[in-house]
């Protein structure tokens, strides 16, 4: 199947109904497509996931009952058609005709009449449908109710800004390899290549591009001159502050963005550990491209008795598994794949990893706890509990409002992704 709209419908069905992750499904679906169609496939899938409740509402109004069983995938084809009609610049006749044509490659030409009729009615009744969607709160924000409640409780003044930022396309940030270039030197190379960008002093290794581009068009990308990494993620290695010859543990390392950054900043001995062997291979790929060396270990960070050699670490980065609610704009499927109950389960795992890794840190050593979550249960509450129960843990503020009762630095999605950091040192 190489029809881009048919592939989009199938991909969305796999994500929303079958619980598959978009980042796993998209490359699979895009295999046989031209670069232009790949971009269109991505745009449609991201867009439908961003506005899923609104599109579901339209279908509820227009279909007697939702399509079920073997016909379920065609409900997603209707979302694809409606998304193009409402949110993309596709000419209306082309959006309808191309969506109806997709049924040919989905081997369901018998449904052409139905899909055509629904999309035409959608066009005719668009104003009324839009008004009725505006009266439904989940369509107003296009996020799950449980998540909105948690955000409202944590950010009574900013929750709507966070939801709005989650609906935007994320900027493309580069991390300049400081072992090769200064940020200003690399900025000049980008100027020479005609790639428009800007610098942000808060993120000392970062450059943000005006428009996303193919990585291979970036000067020296193949040779490791830069990597693609969000600005917030670039703070991890800077807060860790690695020094030459130190023994460092990156306990949840895959795919290795932060491992490589640590090694770009210092000639350290890094153990890069991850519980997922396939993801660990990506750490090795990234190290290879950047010509860096780390000791990759496939193991569970919550059970160090199974793999630790007994030699304490000078510094530890704990970029723990989390809800990823700070990176929804890059992974809009998170909104529909995460469940409220996942947050408690993740908090239990994070607590276990933090408590069991702590004895591996040397007296006087530094630990950075990080998540790409915006939820306090995974962040400030987690670290506050740890500080309360751990007598040799010393809280190190990262900014003025970082206190032992609400520890850490919480970045919200905007210029960078949503991220959380806390810095803890061990008493000598
Ligand atoms: C947020 S990601 C890490 C991103 C990585 N630090 C980077 O910058 O590229 C969390 C990682 O934790 C790993 N993980 C989950 N549970 C783990 C465990 N019990 N022990 C070690 N790694 C674990 C996941 O496989 C995932 O790769």
Automatic annotation (TrEMBL):
Which Enzyme Commission number(s) are listed?
Answer: 2.1.1.176
SAM-dependent MTase RsmB/NOP-type domain residues: 162-427
Give the GO cellular component terms, alphabetically: cytosol
Q: What is the catalytic activity of this protein? A: cytidine(967) in 16S rRNA + S-adenosyl-L-methionine = 5-methylcytidine(967) in 16S rRNA + S-adenosyl-L-homocysteine + H(+)
One MF term from GO for this chain? RNA binding
Q: Where in the cell is it found?
A: Cytoplasm
Q: What top-level class of enzyme does the UniProt entry assign?
A: transferase
Its chief place of residence is cytoplasm
UniProt xrefs under InterPro entries: MeTrfase_RsmB-F_NOP2_cat (IPR049560), MeTrfase_RsmB-F_NOP2_dom (IPR001678), NusB-like_sf (IPR035926), NusB_RsmB_TIM44 (IPR006027), RCMT (IPR023267), rRNA_ssu_MeTfrase_B (IPR004573), RsmB-like_ferredoxin (IPR054728), SAM-dependent_MTases_sf (IPR029063)
The record's active-site residues are 372
Give the UniProt keywords, A-Z.
Cytoplasm, Methyltransferase, RNA-binding, rRNA processing, S-adenosyl-L-methionine, Transferase
Q: Supply the SUPFAM superfamilies for this chain.
A: NusB-like, S-adenosyl-L-methionine-dependent methyltransferases
| GO biological process entries | regulation of DNA-templated transcription; rRNA base methylation
Query: PROSITE patterns under this entry?
Result: SAM_MT_RSMB_NOP
Positions binding S-adenosyl-L-methionine in this chain are: 252-258, 274, 300, 319
| Record-linked Pfam families | Methyltr_RsmB-F, NusB, RsmF-B_ferredox
**In which domain of life is the source organism classified?**
Bacteria
Give the record's family classification.
Belongs to the class I-like SAM-binding methyltransferase superfamily. RsmB/NOP family.
List the PANTHER family hit by this protein, alphabetically: NOL1_NOP2_SUN FAMILY PROTEIN _ ANTITERMINATION NUSB DOMAIN-CONTAINING PROTEIN, NOP2 YEAST -RELATED NOL1/NOP2/FMU SUN DOMAIN-CONTAINING
Q: In UniProt terms, what function does this protein have?
A: Specifically methylates the cytosine at position 967 (m5C967) of 16S rRNA.
Report what the protein is called: 16S rRNA (cytosine(967)-C(5))-methyltransferase
- From which source organism is this entry? Pseudoalteromonas holothuriae
